[in-house]
Design brief:
five-stranded mixed beta sheet; 8 helices; about 400 residues; alpha/beta; Rossmann fold; GMP Synthetase, Chain A, domain 3; globular; 2 domains; seven-stranded mixed beta sheet; 22 strands
C-alpha cells in the first residue's frame, strides 16, 4: 500500500509546490476558477498563495468529469462573483443540500497552532472540505509533514499505513475511527495525537480511541464549514465544560446557548463585523457538563414526546458487541414518528440483549419499534453517517 502514499514536507515549502495538479476550469469571468476534485497538493498550493489573486471554488464531481457551467449558474454570474471569498467550498450536504461557503485565508488559519508539537499528520478528510483544509493549514502553520493517499483504502488500512511511515497525528470523524478500531484489540502506541471532528464524539468512541491509541492526546474539535474551527476539548469526556460559554476564545469566537441550540459569534477581521451563527446543534447541561444531543433536524416527535435520534444511538453503543448504530425516524399514522434502529453487531445472538438494554436505558417513547441488523452503515465520502428517514 506504500505506493499509494504521498508525503508533503512543509518544513521546506514556503511557496506553491511544483508538481501535478488537477484540471482547473476557468470561466469566462477573468478572476474566477473552479478546481474539480482537488487533491491535497492543490489545496496546499492555494493556502501557500498559489491562487494568484483568483477567486477559487473547490468542487467535487463524483463522475470525475468537468462540471458544466450551467450547474453553477445560480451563483457564478458577474453580479455574484464580487461577493465570493478567495476560497469557496461546498458543505458536505450530510444533513441537507450542499451550500457554498466563502473563506478568507485568515479564517482557515485562525485556529492553527504554529507551535503544535505534532510534526507528521495523516490526512483522512477530503482536502476540499473545511476539515481537510484545516488539517493541511495546520501542517503548513507548524511546518510539519503531511501524509495522504488518493486511493480508496479503508479506515483500518489507512491507520495502519500511516503508522507504518511514522505519522504522529490523525484527525478524522468518529465514524472513521469506529471502522478503524472497533472489534479489534490492536493498539497503535506510536500515534501521539488523535482528533475527532465532523460528528458528535460520544463517550464510547472517546474511550475506544484512548484504548487503541494509548500514547495519544485525544481531542474532540467542534467546527463547521460556516464557522471554521470553534473550540476543542481534550479532557477525555464527551461534550464540553461550562467554562467555555459566553467568553471570547483564543480565536476570537464566542459560544452561547439559546433555547438549547449552540450559537457562535464570529468576528470578521476584514470588516470588523460580528456574525451570529445558529449552528443547529442542540445541547443539554447534565452533571456539570454540556452534552451534544444531536442537530435540530435529528429530533423527532413520538406522540407528545421529543426524541433525540443521537441519544438512541449512544445508548445502543454502550452495549458490548454493538459496533455501530444509526437511528432513523419512521413515519407513523398514530404517533407521527417512531424510532427505527440499524445496528452492526458482532453476532446476531446479541439482538435480544440489545432490546433489553434499550428498554432499560431509554424513555419508552425513544425505544425503537424495530431493530435491523446490517453488515455496515452507509457513510458519505467524508466518513459521516448519512442521515434520513426510514421508509
Amino acid at each position: 500500500m506504500l505506493d499509494h502514499l504521498q508525503v508533503l514536507d512543509f518544513s521546506t515549502f514556503t511557496r506553491p509546490i511544483s508538481g501535478p495538479t488537477t484540471p482547473i476550469k476557468y470561466l469566462s469571468l477573468a478572476d474566477l476558477a473552479i478546481y474539480e476534485n482537488p487533491t491535497a497538493v492543490d489545496v496546499a498550493n492555494l493556502l501557500l498563495g498559489g491562487a494568484n489573486g483568483l477567486k477559487v471554488v473547490l468542487s467535487y464531481n463524483k463522475t470525475g468529469g468537468m462540471l458544466r457551467e450551467e450547474e453553477f449558474a445560480a451563483f457564478l454570474n458577474p453580479e455574484y462573483v464580487p461577493q465570493l471569498k478567495p476560497i469557496n467550498i461546498f458543505t458536505s450536504g450530510t444533513t441537507g443540500k450542499p451550500k457554498l461557503v466563502g473563506l478568507d485565508l485568515d479564517r482557515i488559519f485562525d485556529s492553527t497552532r504554529p507551535d503544535h508539537p505534532c510534526d507528521f499528520w495523516g490526512l483522512t478528510y477530503e482536502p476540499f472540505r473545511m476539515a481537510g483544509l484545516q488539517v493541511i493549514a495546520q501542517a503548513i502553520s507548524s511546518r510539519a509533514r503531511l501524509a495522504f493517499t488518493n486511493s480508496n483504502i479503508g479506515p483500518k488500512d489507512k491507520v495502519e499505513l500511516f503508522e507504518s511511515v511514522g505519522v504522529k497525528g490523525i484527525s478524522a470523524t468518529p465514524s472513521f475511527f469506529r471502522l478503524a478500531i472497533t472489534g479489534s484489540e490492536k493498539q497503535y502506541p506510536s500515534i501521539e495525537y488523535i482528533t475527532l471532528g465532523g460528528e458528535i464524539a460520544d463517550q464510547n468512541i472517546i474511550d475506544k480511541a484512548k484504548f487503541a491509541f494509548p500514547s495519544a492526546k485525544v481531542t474532540h474539535i467542534y467546527a463547521s464549514s460556516e464557522a471554521g474551527s470553534v473550540f476543542s476539548v481534550s479532557d477525555g469526556l464527551a461534550g464540553f465544560p461550562d467554562t467555555l460559554l459566553n467568553k471570547r476564545l483564543r480565536n476570537g469566537k464566542r459560544i452561547m446557548v439559546e433555547d438549547g441550540e449552540l450559537i457562535v459569534d464570529i468576528v470578521d477581521s476584514q470588516e470588523s463585523r460580528v456574525t451570529k451563527l445558529k449552528t443547529g446543534d442542540l445541547v443539554e447541561f447534565r452533571e456539570g457538563r454540556w452534552r451534544f444531543i444531536g442537530r435540530n433536524d435529528q429530533i423527532i416527535k413520538v406522540g407528545a414526546h421529543k426524541v433525540s435520534l443521537i441519544e438512541v444511538e449512544n445508548c445502543a453503543l454502550t452495549m458490548d458487541g454493538v459496533e455501530e448504530a444509526r437511528a432513523l425516524g419512521a413515519p407513523n399514522p398514530f404517533l407521527g414518528s417512531v424510532v427505527h434502529l440499524q445496528v452492526v453487531l458482532n453476532g446476531l445472538d446479541l439482538l435480544p440483549n440489545l432490546e433489553r438494554h434499550l428498554r432499560q436505558g431509554l424513555p419508552r417513547s425513544a425505544v425503537p419499534v424495530s431493530i435491523e441488523p446490517v453488515s455496515h452503515l452507509a457513510l458519505s465520502s467524508a466518513y459521516k453517517k448519512i442521515r434520513g428517514t426510514h421508509e
